[in-house]
Amino acid sequence: MLGFLKEPVVIPAEINVNLVALTVMGLISRLWGLCYPRAVVFDEVYYGQFVSLYMKRIFFVDDSGPPFGHMLLALGGYLGGFDGNFLWNRIGAEYTLNVPVWSLRLLPALAGALCVPLAYQILVELHFSHCAALGAALLILLENSLITQSRFMLLESILIFFILLAVLSYLKFYNLQKHSSFSASWWFWLLLTGVSCSCAVGVKYMGLFTYMLLLAIAGLHFWHMIGDQSLSNVSLLCHFLARGLALLLIPVVIYLSFFYVHLALLYRSGPHDQIMTSAFQASLEGGLARITQGQPLEVAYGSQITLRNMLGKPMQCWLHSHTNTYPIRYENGRGSSHQQQVTCYPFKDVNNWWIVKDPGMQQLVVSNPPRPIRHGHIVQLVHGITTRYLNTHDVAAPLSPHSQEVSCYIDYNISMPAQNLWRVEIVNRESDTDVWKTIMSEVRFVHVNTSAVLKASGLIGASLPEWGYRQLEVVGEKLSKGFHQSSVWNVEEHRYGKSQEQKEREVELHSPTQMDMSKNLSFMAKFTELQWKILTLKNEDTEHKYSSSALDWVTMDTNIAYWLHPTSGAQIHLLGNVVTWASANAAALVYTCLSLWYLIRRRRKIYDIPEDAWQLWVSAGAVCGGGWAVNYLPFFLMEKTLFLYHYLPALTFQILLIPVVLQHLGDHLCRSVLLKSMFSALIVAWFSSVYLVYCTFSPVTYGQPALTGTELKDLRWKESWNILIRKQ
Fold first, then answer.
1. Dist CA 331 CA 424 (whole Å)
2. Confidence (pTM)
3. What is the set of domains in the chain, with CATH numbers?
4. What span, in angstroms and rounded, lies between the C-alpha atoms of 457 and 474?
5. Which parts of the chain are coiled coil (predicted)?
6. How far is Cα 352 from Cα 58, in angstroms, rounded to an integer?
7. Cis-peptide into 296, omega within 30 deg
8. At 571, phi and psi to the nearest 5?
9. What is the dihedral sign for C-alpha 61, 63, 66, 69?
10. Residue 622 has what DSSP assignment?
């Protein structure tokens, strides 16, 4: 029974020494001296804030992209025991002892290190020689810009890792297609492709470019499969469903899971939640939730409410009035109604409270039982403190003369009758009998007499003059002008009014709510709102000292100073290996010219290279050249502040193209032994220059050793490079 224990259990394994050696060298190049400098380096000042917020479970919104990359950085902080207590306010600030610098920088460094063996495997899966694959990996290994970007708490190295992993996984899946369809390894690589794509998109939306490229390649491959007569209809359907599951459905589910974890972790209110809707804010612990807890759900006649504008631009604001009136005449000579001002005020204030009144009754309290207001009901809105009625009429608004002025009506005993009836329209209603609900309902107020809609002014950022205390304009705009978010309001704070007397009501308006009510947004509702904010919320782009245009990147006419030692000449710059960048551009140009030449010749039925070599050439171009194009060209269409590091994903693909072109030239254009020998010697010399440039610029890649002013001047190979030289 136990005879098998007499012999040792042996598991034979094949070890690719090249792969192991490349992985070790990648780890050494990225992990060496990772804690240096122990100071905030460039965009660590930006991402570090989010890591601290994760540690403290405080909600935030980052308009630069999805949360997965931030969560990975936060994971490093969590593993290092970071408590989130550090003030990320300036580049170069020394880290305190509680900041685990090594842990925070570890995951980006590991991702950057693993890009080296991934590059090797991609070339192997493209059916190029191991020598070409080794060359691609070494070029990635010795690329100064990739080293710099991967050694700090930044996201580009993580993005590139997932992009390369997605490409490798798809190539492995495709190569298994002919002989091992639906095998365990076939499924593994197909599923890993989808997972890697979703992770790339989850780190930065730039990952979407490579995802689209792989979907296009997969679609083209499946199109070729349709023409394969050896495959049955059932088999084709299974292949189609498998690809749809792995490349479409699973990435969507994983992408949603990033937000699920993000929202589960960040359950506390913070400074960023003010840009979210009232319903979202109320779902967070603290902040608005403390104010709104205990509010009645259904708005009824007699309810006391505050109305928040749903647009939230240029800032959140609430419908507001005060005792001051519009000036009889404006600066431009136009006249006003001289009625009480109505504005949108960006701060919580007792003058933001309004009472919803039944036009047919005089009472300003909620009856027992309450009479809820439904879609289409007519109401009057009474300002809580001044008891004047919200009104609009055919008088031009102060800043928007084509819209109607909104005021609180003052009876001057002149021929200007009150026009204070408003129809409640619930925008997000499920039926025409829906009840107006606190926080949840998005409503418009349509003026009964003029059909104008109550809205925050369309003049985004425009505020009233001194007489209006620089508050935001509120106007009545005709319905025919269409729907806009600025005409939608929601009840944020709400109580059932109990006091008919004005003095008692003022006291009531100053007191907190007391009734119990609990409500939670569903995950999908929170995801939809957060996703929309990420896509539409744009910080004001300002010119940065190190910003650049996409045209500057190809020739590396720009650099970025990441860190400068406060006393010595030690500094870190985002600078690439000049020889590698120039070679990548040359490889792209040679590939394009040769491809056009081959296409023209093939059109004339002249075949310069064998068909299998042509297919190899085309597939490599689709992956490497296509990867460069989709990760670079879209930046010409983007209206945002751009930096050199945005080019690094495209550069990675362009570097992979170098050994592709070199092997092709050696195999098909160098026909004689002499030419092959000369070509090999040139490659050795060229690669030696790559290594020499890497060593030359390593002091500003790693930040050590410190260089003298003369040595720094010698590194300024281009006039456009901003090398910092301290005055002696």
1. 35
2. 0.82
3. 17-261+576-669 (no CATH), 296-511 (2.80.10.50)
4. 5
5. none
6. 28
7. no
8. -160, 160
9. negative
10. I
